[in-house]
Amino acid sequence: MVANITENEERVLLALKDGVERNLEEVSKTTGLPDSAVASAIESLSMKNLLKKSTSTAVFAEPTERAMRTSSLPEDSLYATIGEGMTLSAAKSESHLDDQSFNAALAWGIKRGLIRLVQVGVQGGVERRIERLNPPQKLGETFQRLKEQRRLPVNETPAELEVLRERQLAALKQRSEVRVKAGAELSEDYIRSLRRPTVLSHKTLVDGSYRTLEVPPYQYALRRKASFHRGKNHFYLEFLQMVKETLVAMGFEEMYGPYIEYEFWNFDALFVPQDHIAREAHQSYAISGEPHLPPAPAKDLMRNVGEVHAAGGTTGSIGWGSHWSPEIALRLVLRSHTTSVSARKLGEHPGDSYKFFTIDRNFRRDPLDATHLPEFQQCEGIVGGEHLTFRNLLGFLEEFAHSFGVTKIRFKPGYFPFTEPSVEAYIYHQNLGWVEAAPGGMFRPEVTAPLGITHPVLAWGIGITRFAMAYYGLNDIRELVTQDLETILLKEEAVSKFANNRD
Amino acid sequence: MPTIEIDRRTLTRIVGREIGDAELEELLFNFKGEIQSRGTSTVAVELNADRVDLMCSAGLGRAFKGFLGLELGFPRYPLAETDFTLDVDTSSLREKRPFMVAYVVKGVRLDEISVRELIDFQERMHQILSGNRLRFAIGVHDVSRLVSHRLTYCAVGSSSISFIPLGAEREMNAAQILAEHPKGQEFSHLVAGWSSYPLLATDAGEVLSMPPIINGSLTQLTAHSTSLMVDVTGTDLTLVRSAAQLMAFTIAEFGGAVAKVLPSGAADVEAAKPANLPEMREMELDCDYLRGILGLPLKKSSIASLLGRARFDSVSQRGNRIIAKVPLYRLDIMHQVDLIEDVAMMYGYQNIGPERPYHATNGSLHTITLITEGARRSLSSLGFIEVNNMLLCASSASFWSQPLDMIRLSNPMSHDMDSLRSSLLPGLLSSLTKNQNKPKPIHIFEVGPVVGIRDGSYVQSYNACALVCDNVASCDIIEDFFAQFCLDTGLTPSFGDRAGDPFLAGRGSIILLPDKRQGRIGEVSPEILRRIGLDYPVACFELELCLPSLRRLTY
Known about the structure:
Low-confidence stretches of chain A: none
Number of helices of chain A: 21
Shape of chain B: elongated
Number of strands of chain B: 27
Largest interface: A-B, 105 and 93 residues
Number of domains of chain A: 3
Radius of gyration of chain B: 34 Å
Radius of gyration of chain A: 47 Å
Mean pLDDT of chain A: 88
Strand order of the largest sheet of chain B: 18-22-23-27-26-25-24
CATH class of the largest domain in chain A: Alpha Beta
Oligomer: heterodimer
Low-confidence stretches of chain B: none
Number of domains of chain B: 4
CATH architecture of the largest domain in chain B: 3-Layer(bba) Sandwich
């Protein structure tokens, strides 16, 4: 936009500069612009707050075609032409009306009390004569105004217009009328100033008119147009990416595992007994059909795990003391935690000094509500090597928390079937208080020994989804999987969140 | 995690002194618990499922006394002798519930509240350890009214059983109990198809219970009962012994002397001597191993003293070894690491200083992450908004033919999450329907996993899908974005056959990539758009960015 207003808008404003309210037709008459041009100029000016527009609905009378063909009401013509005491036949010839009109003129004249018919005794009989009574008044006047102005508001002369309507000389129409007036009394100078270019443009720059350009000061106020034609990464996935980079900086290597999983890796290798409540059908999802998921757990590994479950194997544990079924171990589930990936990684014998992590999806049969999603992300980490201790685990958790800007952390004893000792790290959140953030522990010998791991392995599995909620101040977990693009666009970049949360 | 109601006055009675709110919170923190809510004289406490022995005022009190140093080692419950005997007719019970262990606790002081707590505790044991009476069933009796002290546990035919069960007014036989009594109806599935039922009775015909269904009203427990008997029947002797011991020693916290009920004319006379109670498992603890695990340089004597706080008696051995005596009911102690955790808890997790080790390793992102990252960056910079949909999806939303066979769940929670997505497109189209009233054009994308079955085998693929929705969304528009996307991500695709579903005829094409990866690009067919309620044309592409294989155990 080069100027604040267009030429048409300028003409409309000039027509309204006295501050008087007018309707569209009046403005159109004054400016000489067609109605449609005036209407669009009014629309645009009212959006710029330069004029006030009001719309009202009213009933108007308009002359019919028949009215336009009629110069005046027949009874009025008759009244004007007849002399005192004129006979009916003389009046007819004097009035130049045809039979039909003359009869109508007589009927309406009598009805309106303009004339009356009298019978006078003359030679040879009785003669009919017209006598003038009262002169015609409002109706004829209204009829003439209707023809001149073409449109009359009904509420001014309702009775007369109703009579005209009955005589098919007027038609009633409902019309909405736009009335406008200038927002304030405007000087001609001011209106002219609105026409000058106010934005630097290619044209003003090149033709040199920028030298006389008067650019108004602009007040910034974070106005934002809702556009969905712009790029933005999803805040939650960006958040997860930042967590990944944090772990990589701490020396962790990323791993991925399958989403559908043998119960063996999801439960048995993690020393979760086969009758554990987490393995019941109402807790985890079972897979329909039998997709082939190679490679199946090795036979000797299965045997070792089965022995540990039954009586502790070679670990010194008493085991669960119950029957262990390889058939149950080979059933497929949708993995309920990423710890299955850690178990697989340990099964690969990754060496004698390592750190691994994964941040990925898990599935539980939780109903969807503000605090539960049946699918959520876990941040799983393992650290393996000789001489690693429980204190080291607490050290890792503390350092991890620090990288999120968390300074207060406390450790509570915890319980998980696959770790001992176990811990739950609580972090202090300024709005939420102490929040359970990081469950972890040292893998039990019953987990590591059958996999052939002889050194200590520190492990944790953080519910990173809840962490993200706290981070973004969300009260409803479903916002993380929102399909509303506006919600996604309104979120702060995760990288900025990280930066802003640092000390 | 189980939530239990604790009576503060009972807790005070057990511990021997008042425990304030803040102190209670701190103590629970150290025993894996927390306060859920407070009543006038009670608190609701949430505890972890591993320590059933803590799940009542008496059990928590016993543990707190140790933690606070008020009592160390296993509680010195007074031990009694008893003239009660119990004979188990194993042969008649073989296929049913062949094991029974019983204890007598004499001189107990109870009140209304402690009786209610003991019954709640018994139910909690049933739920957590027994699969709701499946593995064992506990009965607690007032035995003061019994004429005979000679008990028999055996299976008896239905018609020979007749007694007044708890909560009933009249004598009932076994069939009537199972059909009419509320507990009989609730637990009849545990004895379904049996012709005879387990019965605990005296030789004078007094019926104590018909395990695992219901007790007799003759031995009903009241606030005034002082002579109690605990019986536990079940299918697993270890569990039965543990549960009986836990119940008996929990009652013993309310005063009273404990005796185990033995068979009449017990050959094992030694076992009847009170000194042999309570029964313990011995577990060796290697102090060096403990120090290595915890990273704490604890002296052997400190370890023994911390075990005492955890209510374990222990005997020092030569070298670095300590023998810990583990009561049978501590079912959670399976390996010495479990003792080590108890030692750490008594030491106080707050007192274990976190220590960052020198453990140098190289960090790196997985190739899958790098590839998907590149695609995400390209598409967002091309003006697409990223959507995050779930892998769980409705099979009905993928009503056109899919590149992979969908994996379905055999126990879905609902129809809209009954399978796993094999393509990103249905989810993105669904996202679009929720936004089609927004200003056009709308450009959205998703990069993420899809799964399915190809040639009978599981496939896990990481896909990218981008979609343009506008008044006009034609091939050339999406082609332009796709071409730039390929430049950004280093892809050199070729175009294969025309693609049918889900595209408008003649307007879709197969994308061919190295390593048998595939994709599709085109204008979505109007029939599909109308069926999902979209009023605007859509053009899209989706392709397999990365198709990892499980050559080892992880990708």
